[in-house]
Design brief:
Layout (H helix, E strand, L loop, with lengths): L1 E5 L2 E4 L4 E8 L7 E7 L6 E7 L5 E3 L7 E6 L4 E6 L8 E8 L4 E2 L4 E2 L6 E2 L3 E6 L1
Parallel strand pairs: 2-13
Antiparallel strand pairs: 1-3, 3-8, 4-5, 4-9, 5-6, 7-8, 9-12, 9-13, 10-11
Length: 128
């Protein structure tokens, strides 16, 4: 599946911003779709994920309550709504999809290495 991420940009602390990830080539049916981010100079980290079929959602502990992941079946799109943005949310955000992946419940994350399809990344910059 090919992924196209969009919606990044510049914002100020406290603002809200939404990202979109649209699939082409095939639908998201049967996939887990996730958002990861890579802050400047840091490693890529898990943000949120949704299982397309069950709509079960997963969040990094530090982002739960501020970020919301959702899907639109008709548009074959996954969204990430980010509220109360902080400067530390500045990162390149990537959407990714996998048919088989494991959720590490002890640390509340998916591994980026388990996802085989990736979008191109979209930059989110939050200024204080």
């Amino acid at each position: 599946v090919q992924l196209q991420a969009s919606g990044g940009g510049s914002s100020q602390a406290g603002d809200s911003l939404g990202l979109s990830c649209t699939a082409s080539g095939r639908t998201f049916r049967g996939y887990t779709v996730a958002w990861f981010r890579q802050p400047p100079g840091k490693e890529r980290e898990f943000v949120a994920a949704i299982k397309w079929n069950s709509r079960n959602t997963y969040y990094a502990d530090s982002l739960r309550g501020r970020f919301t992941i959702s899907r639109d079946n008709a548009r074959n799109t996954v969204y990430l709504q980010m509220n109360s943005l902080k400067p530390e949310d500045t990162a390149v955000y990537y959407c990714a999809a996998a048919r088989r992946c494991h959720f590490y419940s002890g640390s509340n994350h998916f591994r980026a290495a388990d996802f085989g399809s990736w979008g191109q990344g979209t930059l989110v910059t939050v200024s204080s």
